[in-house]
Amino acid sequence: GVHPEGPAKGGLKVTYHESCHLKKSLGVSKQPRELINMNKNCELVEMVEPDRCCGCGGSFTLTHYDISQQIGQKKRDSIVATGADVVATGCPACMMQLSDMLARNGDRARVRHTVELYADTL
Hints:
By secondary structure, the protein is of the alpha/beta class. It has helices at 20-25, 30-37, 60-63, 65-81, 92-104, 114-119, and strands at residues 12-16, 42-44, 86-89, 110-113.
């Protein structure tokens, strides 16, 4: 919902998590932000180190769960520090990790795929 103290641009503060495969392997960084900005109900608020790994790393979370959780907690802290309602990302594995970390901490921020935020404008 819309928060009275929310952003001037719209109802949702959105931060963007750069998945390792999109940013580091494919060089995709500017385009997802453009998609978020196309939704007039979203205000993009950057987190510290948006391209820092969330700790999932494919099967890494299965083979090194404790380390994965420590890395994920740092990413969670960066998300929460923005005050964002939504963290957007383009990777299903990151989405699972971020959802898990936010839920474990009882945070209100929700995880959505970047394309979902664009789809809301259609």
